[in-house]
Amino acid sequence: MTTAKDIMHSGAHWIPAHETLDRAAQMMRDHKVGALPVSAEGEQDRMVGIITDRDIVIKCVAAGHDPSAVTAGELCDGTPRWIESTADVNAVLDEMQSHRIRRLPVIENKKLIGMISEADLALHLSDEQVAGWAERVYSRT
């Protein structure tokens, strides 16, 4: 059985909710990622959301806000989603499809150990699985 841990990329990095979006963008650049889980104030291991490079551009910059004045915590909305490291790949696909998300944090013993992105799916799954996932995540219905 292939698990979430088998297909994730390890070394995911948190950003504290109080950090500004310009700092988040710098972290994304430095770590070559497009998303960062956001940790609760004073609780490094509790996720309150996830921010993406697109969120920063659309919800902050394009809206006329200053990324050095808006925090990661202010940008988070919705319920954060994640998956246990032992979850089967089908559970990963179901979670991402049902919530129409493109990145999924992987948790083990209540700690962030990695992320699963579209690229990880493409590397580890069959063409049919990736096509089915993309159809459900990207469809407008």
TrEMBL record:
<dbReference type="InterPro" id="IPR051257">
    <property type="entry name" value="Diverse_CBS-Domain"/>
</dbReference>
<dbReference type="InterPro" id="IPR000644">
    <property type="entry name" value="CBS_dom"/>
</dbReference>
<dbReference type="Pfam" id="PF00571">
    <property type="entry name" value="CBS"/>
</dbReference>
<dbReference type="InterPro" id="IPR046342">
    <property type="entry name" value="CBS_dom_sf"/>
</dbReference>
<feature type="domain" description="CBS">
    <location>
        <begin position="76"/>
        <end position="132"/>
    </location>
</feature>
<feature type="domain" description="CBS">
    <location>
        <begin position="8"/>
        <end position="68"/>
    </location>
</feature>
<keyword id="KW-0129">CBS domain</keyword>
<protein>
    <submittedName>
        <fullName>CBS domain-containing protein</fullName>
    </submittedName>
</protein>
